[in-house]
Amino acid sequence: MPRGDTMLENRPKPTPVSAANTGGAMVRMQDVAKDFSVRGKETRALQPINLTVNRREFVSLVGPSGCGKSTALNLVAGLLTPTSGQVFYDGQLVQGLNERVGYITQKDTLLPWRTAADNIAVPLELRCRNESRKVIRERVAEMIELVGLRGFDKHYPGELSGGMRKRVALARTLIYEPETLLMDEPFGALDAQLKLLMHDQLQRLTQQRKMTVMFVTHDLAEAIALSDRVVVFSARPGRIRAEREIPLDRPRDVFKVRFADTFSRLHEELWNELKDEVVKGTDV
Ligand SMILES: Nc1ncnc2c1ncn2[C@@H]1O[C@H](COP(=O)(O)OP(=O)(O)O)[C@@H](O)[C@H]1O
Ligand SMILES: [Mg+2]
Q: How far away, in angstroms, is 276 Cα from ligand 1 center?
């Protein structure tokens, strides 16, 4: 993002908030449980969990399908309310939509009648109403480069592959540089090479912009390569089964890091935790 810095200077920065009352925690889930009622039947999606994500920390959540990973992100985004317990964001109780997070949901929610470029521009049009068309166009072009979609800016979502739509959604979230990113399996649909490129870009961006990230993935290697900490959820109803710090230096070469001894050791340890849960989780 060579040109990004200059263009971002004029935009309002998020209000600096003292970390004193939050102990450096950006997200704190305190004894949070979630039940869903489907046709009169209660299903427990999340057991009471306690999870803290510190400011500027990159935390991945891994676990079998249906264990409550998306539910956890929805709770932090304020799209769901906990059945019991509380979710705090930067020391404040999350009540209603949490506008300080950018959320890349599992399903892409692009507007089919807008081109890729016009989809990416939506947050700027909404949030920075005084921004000139020219600045918006430049920022969009920058994001299109960043996610490797040069030449596809005038395509409509229906004319793009699943992986490309995912990248448009990613660009649309990154364009306003939220202080916290919630990402729900954002790279699942991408091929292996493109995934690595996106990992590299994401690491650079989140480090440069000092972002806090909650990242949900099925891919344990991806979680280790990107994260400061990996949290393994049990099969439904989800609870936290294991947590590991990832003591790999930054900036990391997201490709080479996979050959480090620490990486293999962590992969084996975490896989041992995860595999039992994956077996339990395949009850469908
Ligand atoms: N809106 C909802 N209504 C009813 N059940 C839901 C809803 N969202 C999730 N669930 C259920 O909660 C459990 C956890 O879902 P989810 O958080 O999507 O899991 P994951 O993202 O780990 O695959 C699943 O059993 C799912 O069917
Ligand atoms: Mg999910």
A: 20
Examine residue 15 and state whether it is found in any structural domain, yes or no: no
Output the residue whose Cα is nearest ligand 1's atom 9.
71
Strands (E), 81-164: 84-89, 92-93, 101-104
What's the gap in Å between 185 CA and the centre of ligand 2?
Answer: 7
Query: For the chain, how many structural domains are there in total?
Result: 2
Q: Is the pLDDT of residue 86 over 90?
A: yes
Domain coverage including residue 57: 24-100+180-284
This prediction has a pTM of 0.87
Ligand 1 atom nearest to 72, measured from its CA: 17
Q: Tell me, what CATH number does 41's domain have?
A: 3.40.50.300
Same domain flag for 173 and 239: no
Question: Has residue 127 got a pLDDT over 90?
Answer: no
pLDDT of residue 10 exceeding 80: no
Q: Both 216 and 96 in a single domain?
A: yes
